[in-house]
Structures are given as C-alpha cells and as structure tokens.
C-alpha cells in the first residue's frame, strides 16, 4: 500500500477528503484524472435487496450520491462509512473519466482498490463483493422511491481542482 495513500485515507474525515484519496489512487494506477466535479447528496430510495448508491449523468460535472446507505451505515457499522464512500466515489469517478461500461468500471474499481490498499483492505472487499454488504447499506423490510429529487451540494468538493475557478 503506498504510504501517502494510506495516510490520506486514514486522515480522511469527509466525503471531500475521501474524494481526494480516490483521485490520487486513480492518478497513481491509471494515470488519469479530471477536475471541476461537484458532489450532490440526495434521497434516491431504498430497497431491501439492493439500491442505487450513486449516479453520474453523462455529459455533466456532478456525481449524485444516495444519502440513504450513508445514513444506514452510520446506524449499523460506522467503520464501513469511509470504505463504502471510497468505493462509490471511485466507481462514479471512473464514469466521469469516460469509463461507461459497468463491468469494466467494477473491474477497474477492484484493481485500483487492491493496488492502493491491498486485497484484504475493506475498500477492496467492498469492490469485490458489494452485495455482501447490502444488509449494512439498506433498511430491511422497507422499500421506497423518493417523490422528487432534491440534491444538496457538498461544499469544498474536488478541492484540489478548484484553484482555477475564479
């Protein structure tokens, strides 16, 4: 595990901090990156057998992340928050870089997680088998879809790329 990535990850406290680790891991592994992204949090619904963790509308500069699993993790296993957020942000960041095939993105996310942190790290375990963690990510016995989409933008997201914005 590269020492600088481990230190960045261990010190990450917010989604913005975690995203900086994601960008560094992708840069080190694939040599790719982009700036000017925004993160929005929204209630994207819940289903006991699965859920939508996030999405990236192609052609935009926003990642929309489902706040439902984030809240559920805080209730069930707070130690999963950082690795789960890393995985979801990594997956969507790969989409923003033009990797649109889901199977390819899942494979790349696993490879990057292993390269950055090792196969036994929780980020790699989530990337290898997200469905294993669904009980910690969804509310059991309840399914709902939001009536409307209200997105809350995360302040100071993509900090390392924001210096060029006047």
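Q: What amino acid sequence fits the structure above?
A:
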């Amino acid at each position: 595990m590269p020492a600088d990535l481990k230190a960045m990850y261990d010190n990450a406290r917010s989604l913005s901090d975690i995203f900086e680790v994601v960008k560094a891991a992708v840069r080190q592994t694939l040599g790719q990156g982009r700036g000017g992204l925004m993160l929005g949090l929204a209630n994207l619904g819940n289903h006991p057998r699965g859920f939508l963790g996030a999405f990236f509308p192609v052609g935009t500069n926003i990642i929309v992340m489902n706040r439902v699993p984030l809240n559920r993790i805080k209730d069930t296993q707070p130690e999963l928050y950082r690795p789960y957020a890393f995985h979801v942000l990594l997956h969507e960041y790969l989409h923003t870089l033009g990797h649109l095939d889901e199977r390819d993105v899942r494979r790349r996310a696993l490879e990057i997680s292993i390269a950055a942190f090792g196969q036994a790290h929780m980020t790699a375990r989530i990337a290898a088998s997200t469905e294993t963690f669904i009980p910690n990510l969804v509310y059991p016995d309840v399914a709902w879809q939001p009536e409307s989409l209200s997105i809350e933008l995360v302040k100071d997201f993509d900090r390392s790329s924001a210096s060029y914005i006047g």
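Q: And what stands out in the fold?
A: Residues 3-158 form one domain.
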